[in-house]
Amino acid sequence: MATSNGAFVICDDLYKIFKVADIEVMALQGLDLTVKRGELVGVVGASGSGKTTLMNVLGGLTRPSAGQVIIDGKNLLKLSTRELTAYRQVEVGFVWQQGSRNLIPYLSALDNIKLPMTLAGGAGSQIDRRARELMDLVDLSHRYDHIPIQLSGGEQQRVAIAVALANEPKLLLADEPTGELDSTTSDQIYDLFKRLNRDLGLTICIVSHDPLIAQHVGRVVAIRDGKLASETVRRSRQGAKRQPQNAEQERAELAERWDDHFEELIVLDSAGRLQIPKQYREQLGFENRVEMEVTEDGIVIRPAQNLDETSSQGEIQLEREIRVGENGTRGGLFSRFRRKS
Ligand SMILES: Nc1ncnc2c1ncn2[C@@H]1O[C@H](COP(=O)(O)OP(=O)(O)O)[C@@H](O)[C@H]1O
Ligand SMILES: [Mg+2]
């Protein structure tokens, strides 16, 4: 199990199974994730990979089927229904993709922000002051009395962020908050998240369909089939940065920075499992058995040979040999399926 050393969010071997009629869907399949206090993390993955389910689990909206979720030292699975409601109200803030899910359409921006504070039992004058402060924080001092339909998509998401911050949560969860925005407005929203992370020390998880989110956050984790598959980390780059003179140069500079600054690492979980991306499996003809060989500087994984013969006829056994090279230095662990004699 992951330790709580400096970790604010710990997900350990999380499973979530949804049952629809007689069919079970595994939305999370042994997901491990650790987020440090004050970290800004991006979560990416194909549609249906389990991103929203993970956000719902972290937000206390869904109980996992198995595994552990510890947030700020609290084991969410051990909370009573009442404690979980309190957790959702004050310890975590949500921002969803659709403005309509974040805001009440007939309330002004200010009243939308006041609502969660009123529900949590705050006092009137304080609520009003804090709501105005939050509108200022998200740069909307000129929009206090506008109702959502009178605001642009980007402004609606700013109000949604202010609503999410109303009860001073320590954790902010955003599920595709820029999914319906153009790229310029999206960048402004990401800038706001960065500022909140830096100035308030807020721990933030942002789900995105955009792999370029790595430019805006400290770390990106990728979910594949309900499991953490890879992590993109930022590496500092040597050398001077060119000042782009036009949009094309800026794009080229960004692309270059992307190459230089970010590195995708495959996640190796506590049980030693890792996911080989589908594209590589297809390219190399991997099926459900592979051979592994330890070399001087790593492990080579190859498609297993002659499997048809053995798997279709009776019992097979796994043989494991240590192969030692001529000079005795190259050890190799070699696994292969053989028919039992
Ligand atoms: N409430 C639910 N009932 C049944 N299946 C669900 C439910 N929520 C999600 N799923 C299924 O779980 C999987 C993961 O969904 P989701 O977490 O929404 O993925 P993502 O947000 O990455 O698109 C999908 O196969 C989805 O159909
Ligand atoms: Mg989703």
Protein topology:
Blueprint: E1 7-20, E2 23-36, E3 40-44, H1 51-58, E4 66-71, E5 74-75, H2 81-91, E6 92-95, H3 99-102, H4 109-119, H5 124-137, H6 153-165, E7 171-175, H7 183-200, E8 203-207, E9 219-224, E10 227-234, H8 247-261, E11 262-266, H9 278-284, E12 290-295, E13 298-303, H10 307-312, E14 316-324, E15 331-339
Parallel strand pairs: 3-8, 3-9, 6-7, 7-8
Antiparallel strand pairs: 1-2, 1-4, 4-5, 9-10, 10-11, 12-13, 14-15
Helix pairs in contact: 4-5, 4-6, 5-6, 6-7
The protein binds adenosine-5'-diphosphate and magnesium ion.
Summarize the structure in words.
With 341 residues, the protein is an alpha/beta fold. The chain has helices at 51-58, 81-91, 99-102, 109-119, 124-137, 153-165, 183-200, 247-261, 278-284, 307-312, and strands at residues 7-20, 23-36, 40-44, 66-71, 74-75, 92-95, 171-175, 203-207, 219-224, 227-234, 262-266, 290-295, 298-303, 316-324, 331-339. The strands form 4 sheets. The chain has a 7-stranded mixed beta sheet with strand order 6-7-8-3-9-10-11, with helices on both faces. α4 (109-119) crosses α5, α5 crosses α6 and α6 runs parallel beside α7 (183-200). The longest helix is centred in the middle third of the chain and has 18 residues, at 183-200. Residues 310-341 have low confidence and may be disordered. The site of magnesium ion has 3 residues, from α1.
